[in-house]
C-alpha cells in the first residue's frame, strides 16, 4: 500500500511562491533534506548547510526516487529543463513558508518543548502516550533548530490530532522565530540549567532565552513549568507578562499542580506515584532515573491539557524507550560473561551528566562487577567549565561509581579531583581512551559513556559494540512487571 499524500504539488507551490518545472507529481508522500535516505515519492529540499550544499545532491535524490526537488532560482541552470522542480528564491526560506502553511491547516493540539535538559526524552514520552490516543506527529530525532523545526512542522499531516515539536537554542533570540512558526497551545520548559554558558551571562539569561517560547503560545494556551527549578518564578512572571493565565507547575512541593508523591527507582525503570491536576495516578515508567520521573509529570500534565485520557497516558509510559544515545542499554558479550553498556553519548551538560551518573548508580552489577563512568568534555560552558567538571566528583562519590575514565582537557579537572582508587584512565581524546577501557572490562561491569557531541564519545560506544557484540539489555523487573 502506498503512503498517504502529505502535500499536493500545487499546495506546495502556492505556500512557497515557487515556480514549477518539469512533470510534477500530483502529490508527495514526505519531505527530506538528505539524499542518502530519501524515499520514493518524497520531495527533496536542497538546503545549503554549513558543510554541504544540497544542490550538489539533487541528481542522486531524483535517481533515488524523489518525486520533486526544491531548488533556488540562482542554481536552476544546473538541472535539465524537464527535471521536476519547485524553484524558490532561497530553499530554507521556502521550507519555512511551507511550515507556516502546515501550521495554518492544522486542527491538532500543538505542544512545544524546550529546556536545558530533557527536551528530546520529554518529546518522545509525549509521542509515546499520545500516539495511543490519536494520530500523533512529533519531531524526528533532535530536529530542534533553524532547519529542524520548520522541516518537522512541514512534515506534519493535516489530520494529526496531536503535534509535538522540540525547540532548542544556544543563543538568545533563537527560540522566538521557531515558536512563531509552531504557535503551540501548550509550551513546556523542562528545566533551566547552566548550559551554553559560553554564550550567556548566567542562568537568568538562559531562562530569559527559554522564556521566548511563551511569545508564540496561542491565546488561551497554557505553559508547563518546573516548580522545583531555581528559575520557576522568573519564567512564571514572564509568562504572566505575556498574558498567559494558565500556568501549570510540576515538581515535588505541595504547590505543584503535577506533584511527585513517591518514586521507586530501579535499574532500568521506575514506579511513580503522582497527583496530576488533582488526580492520583500510579504508573510504571519505562526509563530509569529521578529526572525522568520528574519529566513524566510534565508529560502527563501536558497530555491532560491537550485533552488526552490521563489514565491511558499514564499506562502508556511503561512502554517508553530511551532515544538513541540517551540511555539505551546493551549487553556486551565478554570472554567470561556479560557486561552492561549504557549509551548516553548523544550530548552532555552538568545537569544531564549528574542525572546519568545517578542512573549508573542504580545499575545492577555482577559479583565482580563495577560501575564505570566514561566521560568526555562538556562543551560551551565558558570560564565556568573547569569548576563544573571538577564538581562532577560529588556525583561520582554520591552514586557509588567505582571507576572513572576521562578524556579531554576539560575533563582533566575531574580526573585531578578523583581519589586514586577511582581513577580508571585518562586520555586527551576519546580515541586515546578506547584501548584502556577495552583492556579493563570484565564480566558484571556496568559502563556508562557520556560527553558533549564534540567529545566524540560515540566512537567508544561503537568500538565496544563491535568488539563485544551483544543484544539490547532489558531490566528483569521491567519485563516481569516487578
TrEMBL record:
Q: Does the keyword Electron transport apply?
A: no
The enzyme's main class, written as a single word, is ligase
Q: Which GO terms describe its cellular component?
A: cytoplasm
Q: What is its EC number?
A: 6.3.2.10
A GO biological-process term? cell wall organization
Q: Identify the main location.
A: cytoplasm
Q: Does the keyword Electron transport apply?
A: no
Q: Name one Pfam family in it.
A: Mur_ligase
Into which family does the record put it? Belongs to the MurCDEF family. MurF subfamily.
- HAMAP family per record: MurF
The name this protein carries in UniProt is UDP-N-acetylmuramoyl-tripeptide--D-alanyl-D-alanine ligase
Q: Which organism is it from?
A: Bradyrhizobium erythrophlei
Read off the lineage from the record. Bacteria, Pseudomonadati, Pseudomonadota, Alphaproteobacteria, Hyphomicrobiales
Amino acid at each position: 500500500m502506498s503512503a498517504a499524500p502529505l502535500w499536493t504539488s500545487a499546495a506546495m507551490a502556492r505556500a512557497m511562491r515557487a515556480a514549477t518545472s518539469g512533470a510534477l507529481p500530483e502529490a508527495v508522500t514526505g519531505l527530506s533534506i538528505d539524499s542518502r535516505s530519501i524515499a520514493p515519492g518524497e520531495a527533496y529540499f536542497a538546503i545549503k548547510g554549513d558543510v554541504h550544499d544540497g544542490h550538489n545532491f539533487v541528481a542522486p535524490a531524483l535517481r533515488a526516487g524523489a518525486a520533486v526537488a526544491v531548488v533556488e532560482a540562482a542554481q536552476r541552470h544546473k538541472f535539465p529543463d524537464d527535471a521536476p522542480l519547485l524553484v524558490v528564491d532561497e530553499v530554507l526560506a521556502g521550507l519555512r513558508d511551507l511550515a507556516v502553511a502546515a501550521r495554518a491547516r492544522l486542527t491538532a493540539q500543538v505542544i512545544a518543548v524546550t529546556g536545558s535538559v530533557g527536551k528530546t526524552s520529554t518529546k518522545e514520552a509525549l509521542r509515546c502516550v499520545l500516539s495511543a490516543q490519536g494520530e500523533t506527529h512529533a519531531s524526528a530525532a533532535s530536529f530542534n533548530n533553524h532547519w529542524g523545526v520548520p522541516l518537522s512542522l512541514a512534515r506534519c499531516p493535516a489530520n494529526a490530532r496531536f503535534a509535538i515539536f522540540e525547540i532548542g537554542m544556544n543563543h538568545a533570540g533563537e527560540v522566538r522565530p521557531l515558536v512563531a512558526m509552531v504557535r503551540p497551545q501548550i509550551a513546556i520548559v523542562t528545566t533551566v540549567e547552566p548550559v551554553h554558558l559560553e554564550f550567556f551571562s548566567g542562568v537568568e539569561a538562559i531562562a530569559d532565552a527559554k522564556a521566548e517560547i511563551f511569545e508564540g503560545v496561542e491565546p488561551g494556551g497554557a505553559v508547563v513549568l518546573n516548580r522545583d527549578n531555581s528559575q520557576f518564578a522568573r519564567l512564571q512572571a514572564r509568562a504572566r507578562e505575556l498574558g498567559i493565565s494558565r500556568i501549570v507547575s510540576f515538581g515535588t512541593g505541595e504547590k505543584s499542580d503535577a506533584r511527585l508523591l513517591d518514586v521507586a527507582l530501579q535499574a532500568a525503570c521506575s514506579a511513580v506515584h503522582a497527583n496530576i491536576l488533582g488526580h492520583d495516578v500510579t504508573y510504571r515508567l519505562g526509563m530509569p532515573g529521578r529526572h525522568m520521573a520528574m519529566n513524566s509529570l510534565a508529560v502527563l500534565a501536558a497530555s491532560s491539557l491537550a485533552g488526552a485520557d490521563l489514565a491511558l497516558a499514564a499506562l502508556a509510559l511503561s512502554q517508553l524507550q530511551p532515544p538513541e544515545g540517551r540511555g539505551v542499554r546493551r549487553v556486551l558479550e565478554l570472554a567470561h560473561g556479560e557486561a552492561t553498556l549504557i549509551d548516553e553519548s548523544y550530548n552532555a551538560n552538568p545537569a544531564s551528566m549528574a542525572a546519568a551518573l545517578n542512573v549508573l548508580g542504580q545499575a545492577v552489577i555482577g559479583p565482580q562487577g563495577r560501575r564505570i563512568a566514561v566521560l568526555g568534555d562538556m562543551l560551551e560552558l565558558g570560564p565556568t567549565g573547569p569548576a563544573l567538571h571538577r564538581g562532577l566528583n560529588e556525583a561520582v562519590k554520591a552514586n557509588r561509581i567505582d571507576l572513572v575514565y576521562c578524556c579531554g582537557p576539560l575533563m582533566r579537572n575531574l580526573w585531578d579531583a578523583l581519589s586514586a582508587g577511582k581513577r580508571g584512565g585518562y586520555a586527551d581524546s576519546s580515541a586515546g581512551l578506547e584501548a584502556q577501557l577495552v583492556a579493563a572490562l570484565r564480566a558484571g561491569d556496568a559502563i556508562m559513556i557520556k560527553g558533549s557531541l564534540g567529545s566524540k564519545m560515540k566512537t567508544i560506544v561503537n568500538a565496544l559494540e563491535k568488539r563485544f557484540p551483544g543484544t539490547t539489555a532489558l531490566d528483569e523487573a521491567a519485563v516481569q512487571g516487578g
